[in-house]
Amino acid sequence: MPGDESLGKERIGRLLFTFAVPMMFSLVLSAVYNMVDQIFIGRGVGYLGNGATNVIFPLMQIALAFGFMFGDGAASCMNLCMGENKPDEARRAMAGGIFASLVAGGALSVLLPLFMAPLCRVFGATELVMPYALDYGYIICACTAFGLFDAVTMSLIRADGSPGFAMLGLVAGCVTNLIGDPIAIFVLGMGVRGAAWATVLGQAVNAVLNVWYLSGHTRSVHLDKTAFRGCLRSVGKIARLGFSSFVGQVGFIVVLFAQNNLLVRYGALSKYGAEIPMAALGVTMKFFTVLFCAVIGVAAGAQPIFSYNYGSRDYGRVLGTLKMVLLVSLCVLGFATAWFQLAPRSIVRLFGSGDTLYDEFAVKCLRIFLALIIMDTFEIAGSIFFQAIGKPLHATVLIMTRQIILQVPAMVIFARLYGVEGILYAGPVDSLLVGIMAAFLLWREGRRMSRRAAPAVGQR
Fold first, then answer.
1. What is the mean pLDDT of the chain?
2. pLDDT tops 60 at residue 3
3. Could you state, in order of their start, the residue ranges of all structural domains in the chain?
4. Which residue among 151, 242, 247, 253 has the highest number of C-beta atoms inside a 10 angstrom radius?
5. Is the dihedral of CA 178, 180, 185, 186 positive or negative?
6. pLDDT tens across 332-357, in order?
7. Using CA atoms, how far apart are residues 35 and 25, in angstroms rounded to an integer?
8. Alpha helices, DSSP H only, in 46-190?
9. For the chain, what percentages of helix, strand and coil (3-state, to nearest 5) are there?
10. CA angle at 325 for the pair 79 and 210, rounded to the nearest 5°
11. Taking the model in full, what pTM does it have?
């Protein structure tokens, strides 16, 4: 299949750079423009507006849960088929991912707005925050199909061997949003509705570019009408391979549900009040997501390399790529940890609160909740690695352990013991325990592959 041979022949360092840098840049830029929404809203509306976007954020993650499941699953399926020299199955996997994204996106764009008000209450909207949440949420959720389609097609384009174009589409969307935010919020006076429309417009621009690529400009997998005729047969396999991504997002939604409600409940009993803890931790997490996405970008950029070489049984190259992913990720999160501990106020000031209690709690969020994020390296790399080599159960176990089995109970227990500040201590406990578990699973899989790898393979 033309265009995919480099996955098995190019030097690992150069290949990882080629795939990971565009992916890192894309995800970081995506996180940045979510954070920019917070900055513009914080300065144009206030922390109640930021609280509203934090309420709607879980609803956006519902769409991404399906987007990641079908996108990551289809990408892994495509590259495994490429490594096994099965071009027709690779084409059907690409078509299946696109078809599933259209069906799921259309359904969610109808269903989410129908239940907007009760969903906002479920995710912690107080009476003060609710009007802003509804203004922002109706627009975002009615246009959910764009974001879901973008998530799926970006994974497909990257798996097709064009990480640079996947980055280009997202950059175009981000730039559109960055220009639209200040115009809509400050010039047109639209408040949170303006931020929502700017986000949707950026997603639509990204979708248009991705459609152009897939409609006749693919590199390795030739997509045509015949691929869609048998694509339903591949959707089941795609869903299985991508199920860990779906579980990860659903688990994240459960965590946000518990977190927001606990912050409101115990915050109301503290000097901070009900709104400040939710808004402060939400903003903190969105800023951290910028750096977190860099680590996800390294591992996700390596996904085609993992899948292709595992499919072709070149285990030495798989392990060489994994070692590089872990090294780069440890450096990024090590830098982030030092920044959060030594200069947290430099981050808090970006959002222009001016409220002393808000600033105080935000600093605690950075220093306590994110104290051991360096250990997240192993869970992030491990979940993507196991999914890429066709072992989604391992990835699912890691994600469920982190978000459902450990983090939610830890937040509940610490909140009861130490109040609203206790919720923050769930972060480092979760990072440490899941990091150890993920490191063990990666070490065990590495030993198994090492025994199967030919002595001369892997360091090309």
1. 82
2. no
3. 10-452
4. 242
5. positive
6. 899 988 988 998 888 777 765 557 88
7. 15
8. 47-83, 87-114, 116-122, 130-142, 144-159, 163-182
9. 85, 0, 15
10. 45
11. 0.69
Instruction: Work out the end-to-end distance of the chain between its first and last CA atoms, rounded to an integer number of angstroms.
Output: 21
**CA 61 → CA 197, 249, 252, distances in Å?**
18, 6, 8
Q: Which residues contact 304 (CB under 8 A, 6 or more apart)?
A: 7, 19, 75, 79, 158, 159, 161
**Amino acid at position 140, single letter:** I
223, 94 in Cβ contact below 8 A?
yes
400-426, pLDDT tens digit by residue? Answer: 888 778 888 999 999 999 998 899 999
- In three-state form (DSSP H/G/I as H, E/B as E, the rest C), the secondary structure along 1-41 is CCCCCHHHHCCHHHHHHHHHHHHHHHHHHHHHHHHHHHHHH
Cα–Cα distance for residue pair 379/318, rounded to 1 Å: 17
Kindly give, in sequence order, each residue whose CB lies less than 8 Å from that of residue 187, ignoring residues fewer than 6 positions away.
none
The pair of three-digit structure tokens given for residue 390, joined into one six-digit string: 């066709």
pLDDT at 108: 92
SS3 304: helix
Q: What values do phi and psi take at 385, rounded to 5?
A: -60, -50
